[in-house]
Amino acid sequence: MASTRAGGDGGRVPSDAPLLSDLMPWSTAPLRLGRSWVLAPDAASLTARWDRLVRAEGAEREALFGPTRARTPYSAVPALPGQVAGTGRFVREPGRRPEPLRVLHGPFDEQWLIPDHRLIDAARPELWRVADAHQVFAVEQGYVPGAAGPALLVSALLPDGTSPAGRPGRIRPLYRRPGGLEPNVTPGLTALLSARHGREAAPEEVLAWAVAAAVPSPRGPVVPLAADPGVWSAGVELGRLMTGIQLRGAHGGVRHRLPGGRRPYVRATVPDRPESLAYDPAEEALSLGTGRIAPVPAGAWDFMIGGVRILELWFERRAGLPEGTEPGTLAAIRPPGWRREWTSELLDLITVLALLAELEPRRERLLTAPTLTRDELYAAGVLPVPAASRRPASVLDHHEEGPEGQFALI
Known about the structure:
Number of helices: 11
């Protein structure tokens, strides 16, 4: 059995357990938008911001754009894979607006993005090439010493990889090619796990296990691998459940619900401009100004990542202008009041957090079982990871439009 040390989540973490990067080697850094106005909790705000920008001319357009070292209105860049947007320099943009795209902004927050490469400093095109109806993105959460919360989350939406606090982690797609092809799993790992557990271990099970068992560390998530077949099966089952909850019905899955009597409902309508968010543990009620939602399990309210309460962060991003937003900028263009769909999204978020919180005791029990060590992975030839496995696959099977309408060559 591997030696152990105290883990950041209060469990017992094997000191010689592999990192997630040993198991799912290909990854990218988080997206770097460069300008906040390309992202919003509602699509209508993005439309209004785009229209305001393209109506402006000269110095006004450049100021609204928000030039950085990576992007200015004069930058020439290719289109994002799979997206329809202009590739001419933005200074000459005639007004063709790409449709806003639903993305994951940090943990659990589904927002909208203008998918135009000319507006994003570092969009990570390799992620966009493999984002399809089969893909699942594993998103590492930034490490904050002593902070509670999961080390690894998953998303069917393209994630930006931002972290509420601390250093953002990496984004690791489950598949290296579109169509669910070529799993992003270290060569030889599934064969080793199959031999040890006496049944075939699919690549999807590696991700499921990681979702259930990953714990934070300064080097990235640590993933103890169960040596016992029964523990492995239990962890995979738990990880699949946790994954299904987070995917929220994507890829043909079910949308998980709290049982009747425990489902949150709107007891008092959320006002047009709720100025505060508060939780009453005795009543299990969440108040948004004079609005009221109940029941809200304590596990949902207490759910934190990187020391930040998820429900409070979600509310702050919608209740008013972000701190430091200057009047007259594109980021200041916001909805005139609370949008009805946000209430529905909040109910869904409460459900997701509550369900995950209820599974935490099962997740912690996985860390008490014997595990495979990195030395065993080296002895089996699984480690070190081949250099090619850490690089993106060449997936270009069609023309991609490059700068100024030229075809991109990859």
